[in-house]
Request: fold
Amino acid sequence: MQIIKAVVGVLRNDKDQLLISKRQKYQFKGGYWELPGGKIKIGESGEQAIVRELGEELGIVVNSLSLRQTMQHTYSDRKIKLNIYNINRYQNAPQGVEGQQIAWVRLQDLYNYPLLPTMRAFINGAVLPNKYWITPATNHQSSTWQAKFEEKITQGIELIQLRSKVPLDTTFIKELNDKCERHNLKLLLNTPDKTFKEPYCAGWHITTNEMLKLKKRPITKGKLLGASTHNLNEALVAQVMGADFVVISPVQTTSTHPNIIPLGWEAAQKVVDKLNIPTYFLGGMRLEDLPKTLQLGAQGIAGVSAF
Reply:
């Protein structure tokens, strides 16, 4: 199988829009939209390639850049190894120098375009935060549980999994979701007997057993879908099924499940390296582990008491 090393750049304007480029008809996957960039030539570094490509394609001069993330995607006849760079400063107004169509688009509007698979993965990574709080699974009506929820929505948490082992009252869920929306937070439901039609949430989180029973993504665009996984094979199943992100666990030994052998950092990183979708590390994670987690390419950390 052909292996192609490529680079793309993330350019933003003062309206916080992203620049995307339409692949021309004669190109592989012609008509699809992507971040601007191209192949790395023999003898080039990734940094040299993105500076050259953006000069040739957009007519800009890159003054400052930084590596954002790496990604892989396998098509039927080729594997793409992609470096994604933040273009922090540049000169000249971008233009479609090679005759390609370009557009400045808000992040939330990107799904209206036919996107390459790597672009969809990039969007998910761009919109998701680096901390994913999971609520305690019991005693939701208690004052202790309610106080913890109120605490988290004022601490900068942007993504919350409402976890319960029993069905919850719709009115209760609506109240929590309304609070989240007022604080610009996303609430994902992880409750029994999911229909994926529950109205008061930003999406759903599914267990490993639920995921393995699904043959395709059960929800439409506009809602998030997370999946719990415990090894690389399960994580790959989640990706193929259409999950927006996975949680891999346990990465480290946990006090709640001390007899379960943890994956360890090396195995967790292999999951990140093989997936195109964002990965959260769960299990024995602490806030101090976040920098290392991000360095390994994961989206961030998840936990009930990690932060």
